[in-house]
User: Which sequence fits this backbone?
């Protein structure tokens, strides 16, 4: 069975500093990995994905994620954090079955301090 | 308006009552999903549907019933609500084919079972 782990429930970073939100995964076969964000009282929104190819994936709002197969990690990064980045982040892995179901991590709340 | 909508947005009910949460999407996406979100668990899949009249269980289906008579609607019914079903429920949809595998989420329904 596939699984996703986000080891930090909460990450604090100063505005303008680089941020990293950590994610590790476990799947059989090739991983399909995603990051979603959740704004307060709203549904989740797609941020970026890794399917194949370049290990560095670029997404919306200046975010990027680095796929590392040997460490089974897919950490989310941004060079310079904004206060508006203070939302809930979910790392997600897709299974290889026909329904392509998603398995979500438990989420990491990012707080960017002004 | 185009997109995916859920109703009601908030619901309070009592133990033992039947409750139906509605989900409607205007994209004609083949796949639809129901998730529940609880602290510390991320999102967990309850049921999904690959097309009209085709449904299947997810990770936590017990106590829930779904139907899909029309492509655009995917109601979730709690036949006899329990306190453990207090949660935030999200509906999502995605296209049948294509490489994106991106799911689009509704705004959620916050359900409280007293």
Assistant:
């Amino acid at each position: 069975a596939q699984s996703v782990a986000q080891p930090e429930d909460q990450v604090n970073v100063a505005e303008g500093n680089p941020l990293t939100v950590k994610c590790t995964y476990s799947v059989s076969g090739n991983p399909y990995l995603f990051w979603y964000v959740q704004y307060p009282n709203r549904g989740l929104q797609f941020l970026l994905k890794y399917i194949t190819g370049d290990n560095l994936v670029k997404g919306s709002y200046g975010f990027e994620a680095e796929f590392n197969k040997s460490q089974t990690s897919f950490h989310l990064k941004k060079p310079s954090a904004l206060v508006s980045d203070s939302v809930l982040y979910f790392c997600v892995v897709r299974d290889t079955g026909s329904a392509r179901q998603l398995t979500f991590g438990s989420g990491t709340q990012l707080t960017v301090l002004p | 308006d185009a997109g995916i909508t859920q109703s009601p947005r908030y619901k309070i009910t009592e133990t033992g009552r039947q409750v139906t949460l509605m989900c409607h999407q205007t994209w004609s996406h083949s796949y639809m999903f129901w998730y529940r979100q609880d602290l510390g668990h991320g999102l967990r899949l309850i049921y999904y549907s690959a097309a009209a009249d085709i449904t299947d269980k997810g990770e936590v289906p017990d106590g829930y019933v779904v139907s899909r008579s029309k492509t655009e609607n995917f109601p979730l019914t709690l036949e006899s609500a329990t306190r453990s079903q207090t949660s935030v429920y999200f509906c999502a949809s995605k296209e049948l084919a294509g490489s994106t595998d991106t799911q689009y989420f509704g705004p959620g329904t916050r359900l409280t079972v007293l």
Observations:
- The interface with chain A takes residues 4, 31, 33, 35, 40-45, 48, 50, 56, 58, 90, 92, 99-108 of chain B (CB under 8 Å).
- The mean pLDDT of chain B is 92.
- The first strand of chain B starts at residue 4 and ends at 7.
- Chain B is about 0% helix and 50% strand.
